[in-house]
């Protein structure tokens, strides 16, 4: 699977699992995304896809790398719907 396609799927999953905040942006916790069974079946390297989407300024999250457990409560914010 190519990176662009995986990023498109990631955006769809953030929209499916996330919720709109008061400022109108869709947000999802990393732990919810990481532990979702559907996401686990789609993404071989979820963290790599997240980093690629962040570099393309489609999403934002605090820090450079997210790790299961340690960063479960970090918000992943969708910048472009």
Automatic annotation (TrEMBL):
<dbReference type="InterPro" id="IPR044302">
    <property type="entry name" value="Costars"/>
</dbReference>
<feature type="domain" description="Costars">
    <location>
        <begin position="1"/>
        <end position="79"/>
    </location>
</feature>
<dbReference type="Pfam" id="PF14705">
    <property type="entry name" value="Costars"/>
</dbReference>
<protein>
    <recommendedName>
        <fullName>Costars family protein ABRACL</fullName>
    </recommendedName>
</protein>
<comment type="similarity">
    <text>Belongs to the costars family.</text>
</comment>
<dbReference type="GO" id="GO:0032970">
    <property type="term" value="P:regulation of actin filament-based process"/>
</dbReference>
<dbReference type="InterPro" id="IPR038095">
    <property type="entry name" value="Costars_sf"/>
</dbReference>
<dbReference type="InterPro" id="IPR027817">
    <property type="entry name" value="Costars_dom"/>
</dbReference>
């Amino acid at each position: 699977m190519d990176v662009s396609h995986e990023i498109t799927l990631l955006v769809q999953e953030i929209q499916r699992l996330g919720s709109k905040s008061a400022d109108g942006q869709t947000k999802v916790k990393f732990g919810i995304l990481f532990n979702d069974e559907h996401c686990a079946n789609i993404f071989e390297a979820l963290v790599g896809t997240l980093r690629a989407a962040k570099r393309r300024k489609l999403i934002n999250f605090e820090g450079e790398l997210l790790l299961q457990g340690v960063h479960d409560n970090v918000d992943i914010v969708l910048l472009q719907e």
